[in-house]
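Batch manifest, entry 17 of 40.
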Amino acid sequence: MPSKPKSKSYRLKSKKFKFVPKSKKQWQPTRNWLELPSDLMLNILQRIDVIERLENAQLVCTAWREICKDPAMWRVIHIEVYSEYPFVRAVYKEMCKLAVDRSQGQLLDLTLIRCCDSELLQYVADRSSQLRRLEIVYNFDENDVLISKAFNKLSLLEELSLVGICIMEEDIEAVGRYCPLLKTLKMNQKSLIYWKDDADYYGDDVYVSAFNEIAQAIAKNLPNLTHLELIGNCLNNNGLQAILDGCCHLEALDLRQCYYHDLKTDLGKRCYRQIKHLKLPHDSLEGYLRAYDIADDSDDEYEGCSECDYTSYDSEDDNDDDGSDDGDALADYIILKEMMAFMDMFG
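Output type: structure tokens
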């Protein structure tokens, strides 16, 4: 006689189950960022973009506000404009002035990319006598001319970097007179071979002569240079020889995209013998942070460069734009300035 099937409850009872208790999570205390030492918090906030510090970080709480008042927070200022709208540049100029004021004369390193003009440069010079390094990538004065009178208050300047700036002999003379500690000079630009299609191109001889005069001014007024960059320069053998004769302490010379001198002569042998770190005209611009700013617009090698890429201004779209970006930027600045004034009332 077949056995009677066992019930479901019986089958469940007959199975052996092993009870595994759930592991308890260890209690971890929450981190209170406000309790961090002020010097550590200052170090963290210094890593934030200058504009972010002004617009956001200092508005988070009273503690961060006090830290952002510390002049040490503003010893290094880097401001880059990704738009060529005049109102946007005007806003960033005012932001730069706020940051310079916060430094209280302790500014050491300043980089201005597509937002500088003579008025801002003079404003910085009047308030930053401790400045050691200055970099300007394109300015927006008429003819992009650098003003020499700003340098008479920058006697501690050790490095001057200029990209796409028209510099004159009197500027070199002023730098040599007022900046005796200058060791590094960078004067880089788009090579002349990219200019020949421009309507205001005057011919090779005019540019070569002008750049030779600049080279002679460097040799005469800056004999203590140890590092010289002349990317895209048009000096010929005469200008190069003047630099080798006048700058006896030169250790590094960058001649990339300088196509108007001949290094297959005895002058080239002298360059190899005298200069420890020599970069030649056809060497790659790889590793140069401002390569995008001096490369030809059609050069795919630097298209979309992550270091320097930005949305350029298109004049054809200007008529279709309602100017809302300009208004938004200006409104943001007005609101920021009002909030800062309000908080200053309460310390």
